[in-house]
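Q: Convert this sequence to structure tokens.
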Amino acid sequence: MSTGNTHIRLTNVSLDVPVNIVNDLRTGGGWHSLLAASILRRPNRQFARILDKINLEMSSGDRIGLIGRNGAGKTSLLHVLTGAYRPTTGVCDIVGQRKALMNISLGLNPNATVYENIFLRGIASGMTTRQLRDHMEDIISFSELSEKLGSPLYTLSSGQRMRLAFSISTALPSEIVIMDEWIGAGDAHFIKRAKQRLLDRLQGSQIVVLASHNNSIIKEVCNRAVLLSKGAIVFDGSVSDTIERYGASA
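A:
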């Protein structure tokens, strides 16, 4: 747990990832291409910059929405904030207990029962066995899977698995919540209940970072927004101003 000084400070954070480039075999004529294709060639490894000199500060009370087109760097930035990606350059200073609501399959075993998966996913997300037992009734109730507890996970629909994962991940509040918009893939009934549960849980969080293409969710959850383009921050301000800026640049 933090000492009461929960914050996120990114200073000149950049992230490079390796990319293997294979030269186009179509040049040089038929025999040349055939000869080139028959030779085992080593691809040319290069590096692509997917985050570029990110400077961002968040403190208690901040509810940050990350906005931008696909490929703008939103998810990559979330991975840096969760610690899954280590910055190539720059300083990432984070104080506070983090919870990531990003990967629906994290900690789930398709061959284990629903009941067993509650423990598997819960422990993978940082909960203790005691916390899981204390919140078991709530998790089962919200997921609406009480009749499926003894069934293997693979027998559930994708929507049921999503409800289970979300129910476990939101059982406890956390000081810092970092999340992608995967809950938007559920049915209308689930999305309505999930949004309300999320808003309730976020009341106990000090910092929230949410990446989404859904402006209504950004407006409901966030009090500040950041616009990303080509891995860089191009605007940081109020939610309404950032959405307007994004619309103007689309």
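The radius of gyration is 21 Å.
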